[in-house]
Amino acid sequence: MNARTIRVELAGRSYDIAIGPGLIDQAGALCRPLLAAPKVTIVSDETVAPLYGARLAASFDKAGIKASTVTVPAGETSKEFGAFGKLMNELLDQRPDRKTTLVALGGGVVGDLTGFAAAVLLRGVDFIQVPTTLLAQVDSSVGGKTGINTRHGKNLVGAFYQPRLVLADTEVLDTLPRRELLAGYAEVAKYGLIDDPDFFAWCETNGGAVLSGDAAKRTYAIEQSCLAKARIVAADERETTDLRALLNLGHTFGHALEAEIGFGGELLHGEAVGTGMAMAFDLSARLGLCPQADADRVRRHLGSVGLPMRLRAIGGDNRRKWEAARLIEHMRGDKKADGGKLTFILARGIGKAFVTREVDEAALRGLLDDALA
Ligand code: NAD
Ligand code: MG
């Protein structure tokens, strides 16, 4: 088998991430030893199920595993409370027992939703992630954060609940729309910016090839990303120190942009993170923490692959709404705001990110005003 395996070390909850081409067709054999009983329910969305559902089910069948499938609409609305209730009833219609395993086949939406469903179905059943977007392969399927959305915001109801296995089939990315691929790529570059300057330099050279479909480079990018995330999660599973918070580089700005523009797909999460990372480096340079040349490199690379870098260019008709004060208000509403203090991930340079709650608000205001000018 032409797959790489990365171990997420979490004592009794450790698991493997397998990365490689064609893994969907080997899922039955790879999952079988981990199942409490040979029965699974696949949860997928209406876009992914027709593309890969039958192949995954056939692979389970071949391994003697009984598989049923439940499908949810594609998109963030499937993480709403009401949709979650509907899914739970549809899962119970399949007459699961405590030995049933749920299998999430899809992007981050399906992964977050299925993971949370597994955490609470019959007080907890096992689950396996088969991520099909780049974002899910490098970020959301690893680390055990699961959850759904409420009218108070995204991911405010959920659980830390680790999968038993992650199967990242690199070939499924061939059907992913370019814009979704690019959004996932922002999270790939993020790992370099956090603490791996060599990987960021590799991204500068190879990012274009990763995006245009070079299989070996794609696999390498996913592998490096999962290694980085696995290492951070192993050291800080529940974000109790500032270590796991480093994964939120670009997210304080990004979430503010997403909250302002709405979660309707006009600005994808990864796009917002890409813009947010450029802003975090700009703010770091403005505060004298980071060389301006490093901030320029971040903006140049992310912009060159096609991520939106200029606030004014984002959001079409919505752009008249961009206002520094409103963006700062959204940052305060972010669940990562700690006792009213804004939390930022800033950097002393590429690969030198750190967490701070001491950002001078005038500097932040100045940055946003300039970005919106
Ligand atoms: P998504 O799951 O909505 O997928 C994006 C779109 O691509 C969907 O329309 C989907 O149907 C389609 N798609 C998926 N795979 C495809 C394929 N192989 N070919 C063609 N189309 C395909 O979005 P996403 O970006 O994967 O995930 C976003 C979600 O992830 C958000 O809800 C976010 O909160 C969550 N997230 C969670 C974590 C975590 O740690 N749990 C981390 C980051 C993001
Ligand atoms: Mg993210």
From TrEMBL:
NAD(+) binds at residues 108-112, 132-133, 145, 154. InterPro entries: Dehydroquinate_synthase (IPR050071), DHQ_synth_AroB (IPR016037), DHQ_synth_fam (IPR030963), DHQS/DOIS_N (IPR030960), DHQS_C (IPR056179). GO terms for biological process: amino acid biosynthetic process; aromatic amino acid family biosynthetic process; chorismate biosynthetic process. Its cofactor is Co(2+); Zn(2+); NAD(+). Keywords: Amino-acid biosynthesis, Aromatic amino acid biosynthesis, Cobalt, Cytoplasm, Lyase, Metal-binding, NAD, Nucleotide-binding, Zinc. Its EC number is 4.2.3.4. It catalyses: 7-phospho-2-dehydro-3-deoxy-D-arabino-heptonate = 3-dehydroquinate + phosphate. SUPFAM superfamilies: Dehydroquinate synthase-like. Pathway: Metabolic intermediate biosynthesis; chorismate biosynthesis; chorismate from D-erythrose 4-phosphate and phosphoenolpyruvate: step 2/7. GO terms for molecular function: 3-dehydroquinate synthase activity; metal ion binding; nucleotide binding. CDD domains: DHQS. Pfam families: DHQ_synthase, DHQS_C. Residues 184-337 form the 3-dehydroquinate synthase C-terminal domain. Binds 1 divalent metal cation per subunit. Can use either Co(2+) or Zn(2+). It is found in: Cytoplasm. It is an enzyme of class 4 (lyase). Zn(2+) binds at residues 187, 251, 269. Gene3D superfamilies: 3.40.50.1970, Dehydroquinate synthase-like - alpha domain (1.20.1090.10). Its main location: cytoplasm. Residues 70-181 form the 3-dehydroquinate synthase N-terminal domain. GO terms for cellular component: cytoplasm. Catalyzes the conversion of 3-deoxy-D-arabino-heptulosonate 7-phosphate (DAHP) to dehydroquinate (DHQ). Belongs to the sugar phosphate cyclases superfamily. Dehydroquinate synthase family. This is 3-dehydroquinate synthase. It comes from Reyranella soli. The lineage of its organism: Bacteria, Pseudomonadati, Pseudomonadota, Alphaproteobacteria, Hyphomicrobiales.
